[in-house]
Amino acid sequence: MNEFNPFAFAIIGILLYLAFPFWGQSFCDESSKFNREGNFIYAQFEEFLQHFLNVSVVEEAVVQTTKQCLQRCLENPQCFSTNIAIWRRSDGKILCHLLSREKFGAPERFQANNSFHHYSILSVCESFPCQNGGSCQALNKVNEYICNCPKGFKGNHCETQVYTACKDIVEKQKKQFRPQDNKPYNLTLGSAEHRVYCHMTDDLGTCGGWGWTLVMKTDGNKSTFHYDSNFWNNTEPFNIEAGETGLDNQETKLPTYWSTSFSKICLAMKYEDRFGAFAINVQANSLYSLIAEGQYRSTSVGRYTWKSLIGPQASLQRNCNKEGFNAKCRWRGARLGILANNEYNCHTCDSLLGFGLQDSSTCGNIATHGGDNGNKDNQAMGYIFVH
Description:
- One of its GO terms (cellular component) is extracellular space.
- This protein is mainly beta.
- It is about 10% helix and about 40% strand.
């Protein structure tokens, strides 16, 4: 017997009809192979000898005949296929598994087996309508189904590619990006889609790489992102429209702050007519996960690298040099930066450089009492990207 033998049956009241003489023919027209609505319910099953579908069992039954097993499946709204034991038990009955999926919607779980025959309800999933690796799930209505899309795709048929970070665009498009490609793109963050500025070219200071995702822009002249601001420890955006405008002077905090994982972070500052940037290798689920709880997490890039954000005008005292996330002395701190002192301890720091500063300037560089380049109050425009 051919391994693929379709037959149809219908239930009207309690009557079961099988179309065994008509192998390969439909019990009803080809466009309606399956229906559980109304007074007339029906389905076509396709037989796969010595095969087994390894999915969730919604009901286990013991029956006398294959026909009884298939009838139970059709009557159960959660059943879309069956595994039926080849060998009868000692009482003459056979084991019947009613399954939550059908073979066409879960082909990767379908396998040869010497102990079972498999019967799947024919549905629109037979034509594999889901694209890009999506799995088809038949519903209890004629020709209705949903596609369960893999990560990176969405749409009724998983036809639309989803990007969650700018680097995804670089990896998927595999092209040479040009300066005009530094612009906002649609990113899916959580359950929502947002327009986010992506720096796609390899010219973001010394950060290197392609496809940097903007997280924040902070103005050192304003108190929006002061060290004590709630914006550092909440998941509320700020001025989200400015997340599309690139390296300008508009402050913003984007959902990428709490939604985007990364392995590198790029810190950049614009001071007067100079732009400085460098990258830190750090693995995190989000920038929020590193900062919000207030725990100090050290970095080790060194004072001269931090000073490169400001350039020749930067000034720090020579001692302490406590750097990282939530760096704190007694009364000064930086959400992301470096603190220094003229004494050989970190108790009374009088100079700091970074983002989210606990001082009159909130981004940039402040130094008093013996900075290596004099006293400074360098208010900068800061940019934080992740990759």
